[in-house]
Design a protein that fits this description.
Structural class: alpha/beta
Largest sheet: 7 strands, mixed
Oligomer: single chain
Shape: globular
Strand content: 15-25%
Number of strands: 18
Distance between the termini: 29 Å
Number of helices: 14
């Protein structure tokens, strides 16, 4: 079966001839701004394995950038979507009520660790839509105009979420941007000021938040502070719990809502159904959670959850949309959650994370080009530097590692504000044998690329 297959490249070069033809057509038909550097045209996928048009098989450590926590084409999800398709594809929730939407909202309400007893959830189509709607809700509840986001943040590519996203390569030439979006420094403790003891770092980053109040918006005009519990595009950086607790206190003191963006880190990726369950264990809960990516196993869907009084403050017509909570997506999501709970994928995420971190720490002992490895559960980043003392980022090496690994059947992707982090987001259904094989390919790429600088071998 494909889901049990190991990586195998059977063509003389990549992309193979059939894949190369489709990539050529892509280059003629699709905007070049939607970039893809991988020599892969997918024919089918199962578990953590992709087979291309030429019969090459790749292990996927990218997982659709966090979408495929239950893997490609899970047969039970396929059947759930087929069963729903036999009934109806679409039922706009403003026009007809469909039970799948209601049942999924009830399910999420019971799971999401937001502050408050009674919760409400509604659905959108993408992570960007979820984040934008969360801001609308916060403004409706607080009657305040401003929000605070952080360095390294990624929240989407709509006009508002481009403004919230830190890296402006995602928003080049798209200004002017909406007013009222202000940025504080995220606690990227690996890159704290030189010479600062680690125990001083949390206080330093909290002071940076107060500076944002002083320089940009006083707290009485801030509707929400938006935090990724574990930054994704920013470099797979966990938000330290002591910092989160301090931010929660600041929010409570000033009537600010705390929004947790769990678009990438939710649905068992970090070892819990939601990463904010770790916050809850530490006595902290967000007011609003946004979610997407793995919620429906690859069918477009996102969600926003908050307590009753916050959700009920929103005027009629402000939230909702034509495709929001599509019946096919809701059917997929209900089955995904059932599988995750039944098959204990949160626990599996922890097991995978321990295995990956053990290898990464071993590599840190052997290869001076690795500066840091960090993460939560099965969401892990490994950061490459030219020099451990200066911590100068090495994005060029990361590009070479990605190209070299692909030639041997492993798909990796970069992250980080400097592009020098490789993210680990392999499907949580990956076998130990496959995981070991992927890590072996990764290490072989490190050995080759640090032994002599190479270029891609693509034909």
């Amino acid at each position: 079966m494909l889901k049990d297959a190991m990586p195998e490249i059977i063509t003389n070069c990549l992309p193979g001839p059939k894949s190369a033809q489709v990539i050529k057509r892509r280059n003629e038909a699709v905007p070049s701004a939607i970039r893809c550097g991988y020599p892969v045209v997918i024919k089918q996928g199962a578990g953590a394995v992709i087979e291309d048009l030429d019969g090459n098989r790749f292990l996927d450590f990218i997982g659709g950038v966090g979408v495929l926590n239950i893997g490609f084409s899970h047969p039970e999800v396929v059947e759930a979507v087929k069963a729903q398709a036999d009934k109806y594809f679409h039922g706009m929730f403003n026009v007809v009520t469909h039970e799948g939407y209601v049942k999924l909202a009830e399910t999420i309400n019971a799971l999401a660790p937001v502050k408050g007893d009674k919760k409400r959830t509604f659905f959108a189509n993408s992570g960007a839509e979820a984040d934008e709607n969360a801001v609308k809700i916060a403004k409706a509840f607080t009657k305040r105009p401003n929000i605070i986001v952080f360095s390294g943040a990624f929240h989407g590519r709509t006009l508002l979420t481009m403004s919230m996203t830190a890296k402006k390569a995602y928003a080049k030439g798209m200004g002017p941007f909406p007013d009222g979006v202000y940025r504080a420094e995220f606690p990227y403790t690996y890159r704290r000021p030189e010479g600062m003891p680690e125990e001083k770092a949390i206080g330093y980053y909290i002071e940076k938040l107060y500076e944002t109040f002083n320089d940009c918006s006083d707290p009485e005009h801030v509707a929400a502070i938006v935090v990724e519990p574990l930054q994704g595009e920013g470099g797979f950086i966990p938000a330290p719990l002591e910092w989160v607790k301090a931010v929660r206190k600041i929010c409570d003191a000033h009537g600010i809502l705390l929004i947790a963006d769990e678009v990438q880190c939710g649905f068992c990726r970090t070892g819990r159904m939601f990463a904010t369950e770790y916050w809850q264990d530490a006595g902290v809960q967000p007011d609003i959670i946004t979610m997407a990516k793995s919620i429906a196993g690859g069918v477009p869907l996102s969600g926003i959850t908050a307590r009753d009084e916050i959700m009920q403050s929103v005027p009629g017509g402000v939230i909702g949309g034509t495709y929001c909570g599509n019946p096919l997506a809701c059917a997929a999501a209900l089955k995904v959650i059932e599988i995750m709970q039944r098959d204990k994928l949160a626990e599996r995420s922890v097991e995978i994370g321990k295995k990956v971190m053990a290898r990464y720490r071993d590599w840190m002992e052997k290869y001076a080009i690795i500066g840091d490895a960090r993460g939560m559960g099965g969401m892990i980043g490994i950061e490459f530097v030219k020099d451990r003392t200066t911590k100068e980022p090495d994005a060029q090496l990361v590009g070479q590692l990605i190209a070299e690994a692909a030639q041997h059947g492993l798909l990796l992707e970069n992250a980080g504000i400097h592009g020098n982090v490789i993210r680990f987001l392999a499907p949580l259904v990956i076998s130990d044998r496959q995981l070991d094989a992927g890590l072996d390919i990764f290490e072989s790429a490190i050995k080759k690329c640090t032994g002599s600088k190479i270029t891609s071998q693509a034909c």
